[in-house]
Design brief:
The protein is mainly beta. It has one domain. The protein is 11% helix and 50% strand. The chain is globular.
Amino acid sequence: MLEKFLNGVKINYTATDDVYRIYKENGSFIGLGEIKENILKRDVIL
């Protein structure tokens, strides 16, 4: 799922519409994602 997210694929994800910080499983920060209408879209990747 992380690889798809990093490649710009929109992913179905149930959460409140907002901007979220995205972390790898090891805890390192990779960027921001935005959820609108239960779809997660990458916003900023560092």
